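Writing this down once: the sequence line spells out the residues, with the fold written below as integer tokens. I am pasting one below:
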Amino acid sequence: MSVRADAETFRGIPIFSECDPVHLQVLAFSAARQAFEAEDLVLKQGFRGAAAFLILNGRVDISTDANGKIGSAGPGAMLGEVAMIGDSNYAITARATEPLSTARIDRNLFMRLAGEYPEFGASVFAALARRLEHSIGEFDVTRHAFLQARSFRSL
């Protein structure tokens, strides 16, 4: 793929959708290609989020320690971006189910790009803030429904 094609793939990720195309080209050019074989771990739940991975080709199974397999992801999916940006632990485990090609974004690269291009960082952080607001709204709806539910004792 070309840098421009990779930049357009990044644009398809919600946290990058409003970023300047030039910044996405810099990100695409700077991201390292990393290949995985079937059964290789891409992310491990509980490990420090040192990098995020954009899947270019192939698929992964996604799981958590508490729930086992919760889904799968393929080309165009981004894995570990919140942990990478927040310098926190991965919330999921992702294991390749077939040969996999990714664009790896190291935290240092992301932070350098956000520092050199503040409007890039502001755009990404604004998208993350909107995502958090949406999640809080969903939790509030769930909380309200839970509070309105009948007690198990009354069943």
About this structure: The helical segments are 3-11, 21-30, 81-86, 107-116, 118-148. The chain is about 45% helix and 25% strand.
